[in-house]
Amino acid sequence: MNPPSSILPSTDGDDLAILNTTFVAISEFILSIPGSAGVLRYIKTSYQDDPFRVVLELILVFFAIQYMSAKKYKIDDNAVKLTSKEIDELVTEWTPEPLVPPLSDQDRLDLEKSTLITGAQGPKPRVGSNQKPLLNLASANYLGLCSSDRIKEKAVQTLREYGVGSCGPPGFYGTIDVHMDLERNIAQFLGVEEAIIYAQGFSTISSVVPAFAKRGDVIVVW
């Protein structure tokens, strides 16, 4: 006959005590690791009210573990092994495909009928037999600076002073005095303390925003 349930020993309290002791021991072990307090503080502030980030990074961690533990790829030992002479013969016989297909008769006719720009390039070039200058909307030289004698003289002077290949942002070619002068002039023109020049708009998004902004910051763009 089974004893009444009221006199059975209760193990719920013991289980909770063991679980609590285990958690305390694990916490003390983690905190004993150098730098663990900073990592825990970062995790606590980073994952607050952001369950999507938690799920995403857990998936990335799982993928990394699966990738590292996957079987390494090996070349099949039964694969055909070629000698150096056979490889050279195959390379000699190989004919690459043309970069562009050959022109058809219609393409040649269209090419012959295409109008060409005659004379110097500029914002208003002369096209074909038409002697009337037309507005060129397909060029970035909309101000006609390429044909300016002052710009040409300055370009020659810059090449003699800095050499060929120095025309670019400091992130590509290194910071020189021209970059610093341009940043100073831009800052004075905009009425701000300092300015930074970048090659393209997308490089600003991928570098400046992550470097200076964090969660909760407000970015004002004008």
From TrEMBL:
Pathway: Sphingolipid metabolism; Lipid metabolism; sphingolipid metabolism. Keywords: Acyltransferase, Lipid metabolism, Pyridoxal phosphate, Sphingolipid metabolism, Transferase. It is an enzyme of class 2 (transferase). One of its GO terms (biological process) is ceramide biosynthetic process. Gene3D superfamilies: Aspartate Aminotransferase, domain 1, Type I PLP-dependent aspartate aminotransferase-like (Major domain). Its EC number is 2.3.1.50. Its cofactor is pyridoxal 5'-phosphate. InterPro entries: Aminotransferase_I/II_large, AON_synthase_class-II, PyrdxlP-dep_Trfase, PyrdxlP-dep_Trfase_major, PyrdxlP-dep_Trfase_small. One of its GO terms (molecular function) is pyridoxal phosphate binding. Residues 133-221 form the Aminotransferase class I/classII large domain. One of its GO terms (cellular component) is membrane. It comes from the Eukaryota. PANTHER family: CLASS II AMINOTRANSFERASE/8-AMINO-7-OXONONANOATE SYNTHASE, SERINE PALMITOYLTRANSFERASE 1. Belongs to the class-II pyridoxal-phosphate-dependent aminotransferase family. This is serine C-palmitoyltransferase. The lineage of its organism: Eukaryota, Fungi, Fungi incertae sedis, Mucoromycota, Mucoromycotina.
